Amino acid sequence: MNLKNIPRIKNTESNNFFLLCGPCAIEGEEMALRIAEKVVKITDKLEIPYVFKGSFKKANRSRIDSFTGIGNEKALKILRKVSETFDVPTITDIHENSDAAMAAEYVDILQIPAFLVRQTDLVVAAADTGKTVNLKKGQFMSPESMKHAVTKVEETGNPNVMATDRGTMFGYSDMIVDFRGIPTMKEFATTVLDVTHSLQQPNQSSGVTGGRPEMIGTIARAGIAAGVDGLFMETHFDPANAKSDGANMLHLDHLEKLLTNLVAIRKAVNSF
């Protein structure tokens, strides 16, 4: 995938990793713009190609009373406003075939969630929009098996596809990252490491997914050292009160220091 095919993407000549980053879910306009403004400022300073991430709805929830969104059109319009306000591309995940064409009217990249990446009709619907497609590796899948999902996109005539590792299930309530998967997936696709979801602790007795955010820096540094093309991270200025995935998000105040360290590691990797 050629990163330059993503509209509004900047800093593509920096030889840095690219970043997909934002809140888990769009909770409102003010919070989305606040987060985007901060991340844009940091990534421009560090010359990191940046895509704002925000889910317009959350379909995979542990409990029926979990937050699912503020309304599809309302959230998608906020994503468009972020893009127009800060001149950055945006990404959101889709869950049903009909979501693909609808979301494609507002965002630049369509993301297929990990639990749905084997759903052929959904993958093809995303690919048929002509938008870049980000395929999350299923927690139950090997890196090698992601080649088939990538091929589904490419065989529609859409070459703009990336694969994202987001950890593998380890027992019932924990995730692990097998860094051997990064060079494996790089053989057939632009490869991203989803740092924050890799630190989830699902299936908690409370029905609310846990996480280990204190390990975000460790996983991110290891991913850059392993040669990943891009990083995916969710961030919020108040993770404790975020409406989705707060337990494994990076506090927005800690983002600049982490990205500064990661850029230094990337420079070292590039020199080898």
TrEMBL record:
Its main location: cytoplasm. Gene3D superfamilies: Aldolase class I. It is found in: Cytoplasm. Pathway: Bacterial outer membrane biogenesis; lipopolysaccharide biosynthesis; Carbohydrate biosynthesis; 3-deoxy-D-manno-octulosonate biosynthesis; 3-deoxy-D-manno-octulosonate from D-ribulose 5-phosphate: step 2/3. Residues 9-267 form the DAHP synthetase I/KDSA domain. It holds the Pfam family DAHP_synth_1. Keywords: Cytoplasm, Transferase. GO terms for molecular function: 3-deoxy-8-phosphooctulonate synthase activity. Its EC number is 2.5.1.55. It catalyses: D-arabinose 5-phosphate + phosphoenolpyruvate + H2O = 3-deoxy-alpha-D-manno-2-octulosonate-8-phosphate + phosphate. Belongs to the KdsA family. This is 3-deoxy-8-phosphooctulonate synthase. The lineage of its organism: Bacteria, Pseudomonadati, Bacteroidota, Flavobacteriia, Flavobacteriales.
